[in-house]
Amino acid sequence: EQIKKGDFDHFMKKEIHEQPDSLTTSMRGRLKDGVVGLGGLKDHMRTIRRSRRIIFIGCGTSYHAALAARPIMEELTDIPVTMEIASDMLDRKALIFKEDTAVFVSQSGETADTLLALEYALQHGALCVGVTNTVGSTLARKTHCGVHINAGCEIGVASTKAYTCQIVVMVMMALAIGSDKMSTLAQREAIIAGLTKLPEKVHDVLKLDGEMKALAQSLIEEQSLLMFGRGNNYATALEGALKVKEVALMHSEGMLAGEMKHGPLALVDEYLPIIVIATHDDSFSKQQSVIQQLHARKGRLIVMCSEGDASLVCPDGRSRVIEVPRVVDCLQPIINIIPMQLLAYHLTVLRGYNVDQPRNLAKSVTTQ
Ligand code: G6P
């Protein structure tokens, strides 16, 4: 086991640091001359483009990855995208039609709830697409078509590199499905250029390791942690909070910043730590106003912003600021989750818990 971990103490740490490489592998052979080629979807592209709706289905981290890719999928394809947590879809016997494209996202390809939702969608005649890390998995075999994320074997129970590779694959899917639209050509070119530079930017953000360890040190005694995000980074708030919950065994909630005034604001005081994701995209001014409202209630803030924006998000220097490299908006969730993964990792080690095998959890939940 130690040999497999290489220079790292834990698989989670190794997998966090592998992300520049796993993302490169995920994209390998799929971006040629400014065009995205996804062989696994080729024969079904016409059906996908004609579908009335795309439904993203998954559990846990895989669901969050789909949520992160949802805005760009809608923007580039002009097809409405809805989200389903697999168990809830089954509980509600959600409506699904043969004009739908159902995209199932699962690292293992063996999660029972996701596979049952797949059976259900197949019975209702939807086109079923798989996004998985596991070649030969049940998901890969039973879907009509799909894309492997090629993140490499992930051992830590808390998913890290699979999450970022899932997002990259779904962004590439959005580019491929939307590639017949001239109106988005410049935007698609900018995203492809961003994908090419992404591994290097991920490498840069990993340098925040020491800073995240220091932040973790300041939070080890806390009972609770909130994370506010919106737009492309709503998923980052949910996934960051899930990481902290799963491995550091600390209560943590990710929240939609737009909902703050409808309840969560009541929790704000000078003690409860709140991470606000406010990197520079078209939600930035709204997040600035969220920060002001939290400051007005003496909130204890940790703000994640784009490099060079510290004075914009925190003019009086009162909050702790985490500066991250800026990339195109739809790829920013990949950059932004990395400090949160590092924070969860360090919190866990400092609190003395098992990083790779958190209590009560399994890497793949194969029972209902
Ligand atoms: C379990 C794992 C999570 C994972 C979820 C979905 O709960 O502990 O880390 O996100 O299953 O797994 P999947 O293999 O379908 O992505």
UniProtKB/TrEMBL annotation:
E.C. no: 2.6.1.16
Listed pathway(s): Nucleotide-sugar biosynthesis; UDP-N-acetyl-alpha-D-glucosamine biosynthesis; alpha-D-glucosamine 6-phosphate from D-fructose 6-phosphate: step 1/1
This protein's record includes keyword Hydrolase: no
Biological processes, Gene Ontology terms: fructose 6-phosphate metabolic process; protein N-linked glycosylation; UDP-N-acetylglucosamine metabolic process
Recorded catalytic activity of this chain's protein: D-fructose 6-phosphate + L-glutamine = D-glucosamine 6-phosphate + L-glutamate
Catalytic EC class: transferase
Domain named SIS: residues: 44-184, 215-358
Keywords: Aminotransferase, Glutamine amidotransferase, Repeat, Transferase
Gene Ontology molecular function terms on file: carbohydrate derivative binding; glutamine-fructose-6-phosphate transaminase (isomerizing) activity
Protein name per UniProt: glutamine--fructose-6-phosphate transaminase (isomerizing)
Source organism per UniProt: Rhynchospora pubera
Section covered of the full-length record: 307 to 674 of 674
